[in-house]
Amino acid sequence: MYAQFDTTNVSSTARSHRHRWIAAGVLAGLAALAVVAVVTAPDGGAQPTGFACEETAELDVVTGSGLGDTTSGPAAILGFNHAYYVDRSVEHARRFLTSDSAITPGDRLQTGIDAVPADTRHCVSISPLNTSGESARWAVTVAEFRPGTEPWVARQTVTTRTVDGATLISEITLG
């Protein structure tokens, strides 16, 4: 279901060039989604009826907005974002976090969820950065499509860790 990423035997220069191309591709894809969203919203204030976030797992990039699970880093990242935007539930989001996560799944997270309009759509793009033992870092782009506004894009670095057979998020940093 999700792509397997092998970052062994890849020089940092080659990896850097590859990440630039991947980032350019992701940004181009998000720009295309933004154009589709603007064009398909006839009054500029309605939610685009043709909004779609294509579920893909190709060549070091996973894209989607699905349920996710705890079988891999990309799956956990998708699951956390689904809990945030669709389920709008701290309890559901907590299932994707390590017990010592830097993300506090309490009032602050619920305040963030509550600040997002309920009919907001999202699309997540995930690319591997590096792996060290049971931990992995991911370049994540979350495109947020709120009704009546321009799309907003957040760039994050997400660290996942495999604990007792489940891959969970231990940290999310912006930038």
Write the layout of secondary structure elements.
Blueprint: H1 12-40, E1 56-58, E2 61-64, H2 73-87, H3 90-94, H4 107-115, E3 121-132, E4 135-145, E5 152-163, E6 166-174
Antiparallel strand pairs: 1-2, 2-3, 3-4, 4-5, 5-6
List keywords for this structure.
175 residues; alpha+beta; 6-stranded antiparallel sheet; 4 helices; 6 strands
Could you describe the 3D structure shown?
The protein is α+β, with helices and mostly antiparallel strands and 175 residues long. The model is unreliable at 1-10 and 23-50 (pLDDT under 50). It contains 4 helices and 6 strands. 33% of the residues lie in helices and 29% in strands. A hairpin with a 6-residue loop joins strand 4 and strand 5 (152-163). A 6-stranded antiparallel beta sheet has the order 1-2-3-4-5-6, with helices on both faces. The chain is globular.
Largest pleated sheet = 6 strands, antiparallel
* Shape label: globular
Give the CA-CA distance, first to last residue: 28 Å
- Give the low-confidence spans: 1-10, 23-50
Q: What does the average pLDDT come to?
A: 79
How large is the count of helical segments? Answer: 4
Strand content: 25-35%
List the helices and strands in order. Answer: HEEHHHEEEE
Q: Give the oligomer, counting copies of the same chain as homo and different chains as hetero.
A: single chain
Structural class: alpha+beta
Radius of gyration: 16 Å
Strand line-up of the largest beta sheet:
1-2-3-4-5-6
The counted number of beta strands is 6
**Portion in helices:** 25-40%
